Amino acid sequence: MRQERGAAPRYAQIAAAIRAQIIAGRLGGPGARIPSEPEIIDTYGVSKTTASEALKMLSAEGLIVRRSGAGSFIAAHPPQLQTVEVCPGARISARPANAEDFVGSIEEIPPGVPALVVEIPGRPVRVYPADRTHLVILAEYRGPIAAARAPAPVPVARQARTGDGRSPQR
After folding, report:
1. Using CA atoms, how far apart are residues 32 and 28, in angstroms rounded to an integer?
2. SS3 of residue 80 by DSSP
3. Nearest CA-CA partner of 57 in 118, 3, 134, 114
C-alpha cells in the first residue's frame, strides 16, 4: 500500500485507527482482545513489520498489553484523558511531537504521540499530548477561573511551525 507524501507513517495511521476504536469502546473494555498482527495485515494490507510497529506504538502509550503467544489486550488502566478548556479565538493545531514538548510532564509521554498546540493571543504557546487530551471550546471567555481547571501543560517557547515557516495543517 502506497503512502502519500507528507502523511503519517502507515503504522501510526493504523495505531490511530485502533486507538480511536479503543477510546470509543468499539473493541470492548479493559482486558478485551484487540486485532492481532495477522488480522491487521489482512485488514490494512500491510507488512508484518508495519502491523508490529502499530501494536508497539499502542503498547508504549499504555493503551494495550501484549502477551507473547496470547495476543494484545486493552490495558486495565489506560492513560486518563485530561479536559482542557480553550477560549474563543484560540488557534489549535496538531503536529508530530518534538523531544522537548513534554519535558517536565508528570507522566511519561511515549514517542510517536502527536502534539496538540494551543495558541492564545498574548499568552505562551501550550502543547498537550493528543492521545490523552480532550479540548473543549468555550462559548465565551470566563477569565482565569476556567483556565485554572485545566492541568498546566509545559509552556513552549517557540511557535508551532513547519520547517518552511508555515503553520501545520491537518
Report:
1. 6
2. coil
3. 114
Distances (CA, A) of 96 to 6, 9, 38, 112, 129: 12, 11, 28, 7, 10
Spatial CA neighbour of 12 closest among 122, 131, 108, 119: 131
pTM over 0.85? The answer is no
Report pLDDT for 160: 41
Cβ-contact 37, 48 below 8 angstroms: yes
Predicted confidence (pLDDT) per residue in 44-99, tens digit: 999 999 999 999 989 887 889 999 889 999 988 766 777 888 888 889 988 887 77
C-alpha cell at 13: 495511521
The SS3 call for residue 59 is helix
What is the residue whose three cell numbers read 486495565?
76
pLDDT at 157: 39
80, 39, 79: which is closest to 59 by C-alpha? 79
**Coil, strand or helix: which one is 138?**
coil
